[in-house]
Design brief:
Elements lengths: L3 H17 L2 H23 L7 H28 L15
Helix pairs in contact: 1-2, 1-3, 2-3
Protein backbone atom coordinates (compact mmCIF):
# COMPACT_ATOMS: atom_id res chain seq x y z
CA UNK A 1 0.00 0.00 0.00
CA UNK A 2 2.88 2.36 0.72
CA UNK A 3 4.05 1.96 -2.86
CA UNK A 4 0.87 3.68 -4.08
CA UNK A 5 1.63 6.90 -2.18
CA UNK A 6 4.21 8.31 -4.62
CA UNK A 7 2.07 7.27 -7.60
CA UNK A 8 -1.10 8.89 -6.25
CA UNK A 9 0.81 11.96 -5.14
CA UNK A 10 2.38 12.19 -8.59
CA UNK A 11 -1.03 11.96 -10.29
CA UNK A 12 -2.50 14.68 -8.07
CA UNK A 13 0.46 17.00 -8.58
CA UNK A 14 0.53 16.29 -12.31
CA UNK A 15 -3.12 17.24 -12.68
CA UNK A 16 -2.67 20.36 -10.55
CA UNK A 17 0.48 21.58 -12.31
CA UNK A 18 -0.47 20.74 -15.90
CA UNK A 19 -4.01 21.95 -15.34
CA UNK A 20 -3.11 25.25 -13.76
CA UNK A 21 0.22 26.56 -15.02
CA UNK A 22 1.95 27.15 -18.32
CA UNK A 23 5.32 27.65 -19.96
CA UNK A 24 8.67 27.38 -18.25
CA UNK A 25 7.11 27.53 -14.82
CA UNK A 26 5.32 24.26 -15.51
CA UNK A 27 8.60 22.50 -16.31
CA UNK A 28 10.29 23.68 -13.11
CA UNK A 29 7.24 22.84 -11.01
CA UNK A 30 7.04 19.39 -12.60
CA UNK A 31 10.62 18.56 -11.73
CA UNK A 32 10.25 19.86 -8.19
CA UNK A 33 6.97 18.00 -7.67
CA UNK A 34 8.43 14.64 -8.69
CA UNK A 35 11.52 15.10 -6.54
CA UNK A 36 9.61 16.28 -3.47
CA UNK A 37 6.94 13.58 -3.72
CA UNK A 38 9.56 10.84 -4.07
CA UNK A 39 11.59 12.20 -1.16
CA UNK A 40 8.48 12.58 1.01
CA UNK A 41 7.33 9.04 0.26
CA UNK A 42 10.75 7.61 1.13
CA UNK A 43 11.11 9.55 4.37
CA UNK A 44 7.51 9.23 5.59
CA UNK A 45 7.48 5.47 5.01
CA UNK A 46 10.76 5.08 6.88
CA UNK A 47 12.38 3.26 3.98
CA UNK A 48 15.39 5.57 4.13
CA UNK A 49 16.41 3.92 7.41
CA UNK A 50 16.91 0.66 5.56
CA UNK A 51 18.55 2.07 2.42
CA UNK A 52 18.46 5.27 0.37
CA UNK A 53 18.10 3.11 -2.75
CA UNK A 54 14.37 3.20 -2.03
CA UNK A 55 14.46 6.85 -3.04
CA UNK A 56 15.21 5.74 -6.60
CA UNK A 57 12.24 3.38 -6.57
CA UNK A 58 9.95 6.07 -5.20
CA UNK A 59 11.33 8.51 -7.77
CA UNK A 60 10.35 6.13 -10.57
CA UNK A 61 6.89 5.65 -9.07
CA UNK A 62 6.36 9.39 -8.63
CA UNK A 63 7.47 10.00 -12.21
CA UNK A 64 5.03 7.38 -13.45
CA UNK A 65 2.21 8.94 -11.46
CA UNK A 66 3.10 12.42 -12.66
CA UNK A 67 3.11 11.26 -16.27
CA UNK A 68 -0.31 9.68 -15.73
CA UNK A 69 -1.61 12.95 -14.29
CA UNK A 70 -0.27 14.81 -17.31
CA UNK A 71 -2.00 12.39 -19.69
CA UNK A 72 -5.27 12.82 -17.80
CA UNK A 73 -5.14 16.61 -18.20
CA UNK A 74 -4.17 16.46 -21.87
CA UNK A 75 -6.95 14.01 -22.74
CA UNK A 76 -9.49 16.02 -20.78
CA UNK A 77 -8.47 19.18 -22.62
CA UNK A 78 -8.64 17.39 -25.97
CA UNK A 79 -12.14 16.17 -25.19
CA UNK A 80 -13.19 19.74 -24.40
CA UNK A 81 -11.99 21.04 -27.77
CA UNK A 82 -14.84 21.89 -30.10
CA UNK A 83 -14.54 20.67 -33.65
CA UNK A 84 -16.36 22.44 -36.52
CA UNK A 85 -19.57 20.88 -37.82
CA UNK A 86 -19.32 18.54 -40.83
CA UNK A 87 -18.98 20.43 -44.13
CA UNK A 88 -17.28 23.47 -42.61
CA UNK A 89 -13.54 23.95 -42.86
CA UNK A 90 -13.22 26.93 -40.53
CA UNK A 91 -15.02 28.50 -37.62
CA UNK A 92 -15.97 31.62 -39.62
CA UNK A 93 -18.23 31.46 -42.63
CA UNK A 94 -18.21 34.12 -45.34
CA UNK A 95 -21.45 35.10 -47.09
Amino acid sequence: MEELVPVVLGVVLGVMIWGGSAGGRRTVLSLCAVLVSAFAATVLSGEYQESWIYLLLDLAEATLGFALGTVIVRRWRASQAVSPPPGRTSTTERH
